[in-house]
Structures are given as C-alpha cells and as structure tokens.
C-alpha cells in the first residue's frame, strides 16, 4: 500500500510509465470519461487497445469483458469500477487470470468489500470515500513493482515502495484524516455493513425512479446501476430545471447532473446518511404529485 500525491489523475500516467514495457499493450475498458482520460495518458506512453466500451450507448451500462477482448501481448487490463458521471458500477469484475487487473476505484473504494487478491493494482484519489483530497491510495501486487532507472524518481512506484511512502514529505494531514475515516468505517461495522447501507440508500432512490411511471428516468441500465451516483432525468428539460431549482430551495444541493449528460445526479458516497436519501425520495414523490 502506497500513499502518493497527484490524485488519481497522476496514476493515469504512472501506470503506463511503470507497467507498459515496449512490445506490450495496455488494455482499457471504456465506461466513461475517467477511463477515457486514463486511456489518453497511456497512449502518450505506449501502445494501447480498447478491450470493451459502451461509449456508443452513452455509457449507460458496464460492457462485459472477457479474454477474447484483450490481446495476448497485453500488460494489464484497466477498468474504472464506478463511473461518477454516468452512474454505473461494476457488479462483477472481469476474470483476467494471469493478466494484472488494474482498477481505478476512486469513487467506490471502501463502499463495499472487495477481494483484493483479484487485482494487480487498485488506486483511488481519497476525496470521495476515504478522506480529503491530497492523498492517493495505491494497493499494488509486489511483483508488479520494479525499478525503472529511466523514470523520474518520483514517478517510479519502487521509490515509494522502498521508502514506505516516506521518500519525500507525504501529505500528513490528509493521511491522518484518512486514518480517522478508517476508524469510522470500523465503527460502522466495516465495509460489509457500509455496503449494505449503501445498497439500501441507492435502492430507495432507484425504487422511486422505477415506480414513477416514467416521470423520472434512470440513465444507467438496471444491471449496471451505481450505488454511489444515481443519475436520472425528468421527462422534459424544463421540468428538470424546475425540479433542480426547487430541490435546491429544499436544501438538496449539488443535484445537477454533469454537463456531459445533463439531468440530475445524486451522489450518495459513504458519508451521506440514509435519512438524506429518504428525504430526497420524499421530495421527488411530492414534486411528482404536485406536477399533476
Ligand atoms: C474523481 C475521480 C477521479 C479524479 O481523481 P483526482 O484525484 O481528482 O485526480 C478519477 N477517477 C475516478 C473514477 C473518479 O471518480
């Protein structure tokens, strides 16, 4: 486990710099704008391929990915486990066998239990579920860490691994607060309890959407729905606007969807209590009732 800086975005570059040897290919599953960004950076470093993508369907679902989708020279398969803008999330991870599976878990780490042994590497910017911005957590299989004399020292995983994340001054306050968040997760009963609660929170909202007779429409297909970001629209744009401004008056701030898909997005990370999700569903039902 490494504590680094530069956000998840720097990992988009460090991964290919460290793991994409010449003659190998970085394989990417495209499920939204974060994975697109990861791919853009990898292309600057070496050869890449798109193993799977749902871009043509506006990233409404998580595409299935299996061993016919990546080349035999692949160095790793990269996925984005939760997609904040589109509101999709992997329920099952690709089975990659010997091929290292790398996951950007920035927006759902610690939201559920994960079998870490299935991954070559997991990374996450802290600021959604782990703590404040400024620290990036990397969980990496030891055999993937090698020294690269051609790389800038700070961009070489082995530098940080050898120095136990103390090669230079670490973001101490961010790491300290991360430790408090981990204590809090333990007090909640650990990731199993957190996962159950997250599922209940998300299902409150999805149920409201599904039982609205099309008044609210979810963006993600049912099997790919995220428990962290619930994305939906109303049946016309004018109404969406009214909904958002009235929601704001009622204290539901930050409900606007990302500009690339519009509509509404309820981000319900670990820190959001069940009651807030319940209150939002009450508001949604009331808004629909008043519309008639
Ligand atoms: C938020 C987010 C990022 C960006 O993280 P930074 O730490 O700001 O670079 C990257 N990937 C995913 C999946 C995210 O949700």
End-to-end Cα distance, whole Å, is: 54 Å
Detail the poorly predicted runs: none
What proportion of the residues form beta strands (DSSP E)? 15-25%
Largest sheet: 7 strands, mixed
Helix and strand composition category: alpha/beta
- The secondary-structure element order is EHEHEEEEEEEHHHEEHEH
The level of helicity is: 25-40%
User: Which strand order spans the largest sheet, edge to edge or round the barrel?
Assistant: 1-9-8-7-4-2-3
Number of helices: 7
The rough form would be described as: globular
Radius of gyration: 20 Å
Integer average pLDDT? 97
Listed once per kind, the bound small molecules are: pyridoxal-5'-phosphate
Commentary on this structure:
β5 (82-83) and β6 form a beta hairpin. The protein has 292 residues and is α/β, with parallel strands linked by helices. It contains seven helices and twelve strands. Helices cover 34% and strands 18% of the residues. α1 packs parallel to α2 (33-45) and α5 packs parallel to α7. Strands 1-9-8-7-4-2-3 form a seven-stranded mixed β-sheet. Strands 10-11-12 form a three-stranded antiparallel β-sheet. The protein has a two-stranded antiparallel sheet with strand order 5-6. The chain is globular, with a radius of gyration of 20 Å. Bound molecules: pyridoxal-5'-phosphate. Pyridoxal-5'-phosphate (PLP) is lined by residues 7-9, 34, 80, 84, 104, 106-107, 125.
């Amino acid at each position: 486990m490494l504590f680094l800086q530069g956000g998840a975005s720097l990992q988009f570059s460090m991964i290919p710099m460290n793991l994409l040897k010449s003659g190998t290919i970085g394989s990417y599953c495209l499920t939204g704008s974060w994975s697109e960004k990861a791919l853009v950076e990898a292309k600057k470093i070496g050869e890449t391929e798109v193993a799977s993508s749902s871009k043509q369907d506006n990233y409404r679902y998580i595409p299935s990915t299996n061993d016919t989708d990546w080349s035999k020279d692949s160095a790793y398969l990269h996925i984005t486990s939760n997609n904040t803008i589109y509101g999709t999330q992997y329920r099952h991870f690709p089975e990659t066998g010997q091929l290292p599976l790398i996951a950007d878990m920035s927006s759902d780490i610690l939201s559920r239990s994960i079998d870490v042994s299935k991954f070559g590497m997991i990374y996450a910017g802290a600021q959604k579920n782990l703590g404040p911005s400024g620290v990036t957590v990397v969980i990496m299989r030891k055999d993937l860490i090698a020294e690269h004399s051609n790389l800038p020292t700070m961009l070489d995983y082995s530098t940080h691994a050898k120095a136990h994340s103390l090669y230079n001054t670490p973001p101490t306050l961010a790491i300290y607060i991360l430790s408090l968040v981990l204590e809090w997760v333990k007090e909640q009963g650990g990731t199993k309890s957190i996962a159950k609660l997250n599922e209940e929170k998300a299902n409150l909202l999805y149920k409201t959407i599904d039982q609205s007779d099309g008044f609210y429409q979810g963006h993600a297909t049912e099997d790919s729905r995220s428990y962290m970001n619930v994305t939906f629209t109303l049946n016309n744009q004018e109404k969406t606007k009214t909904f958002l401004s009235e929601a704001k008056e009622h204290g539901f701030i930050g409900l606007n969807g990302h500009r690339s898909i519009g509509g509404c997005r309820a981000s319900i990370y670990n820190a959001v209590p069940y009651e807030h999700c319940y209150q939002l569903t009450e508001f949604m039902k009331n808004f629909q009732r008043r519309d008639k």
